[in-house]
Amino acid sequence: MASGWRNKCLCLCFIVFLHSLRVADCLSCYSCHYENVQQACLETEVTCEWGEVCFNTVYRQSQYNGVTVITSKGCKLRGECEALQRLNEDSYCEATPSECVYCCDEDRCNGAQSLSPVYSALVLTMMVLKGFVNHML
Question: Which of 32, 82, 100, 108 could share a disulfide with 93, CB 3.0–4.6 Å?
Answer without folding.
Answer: 100
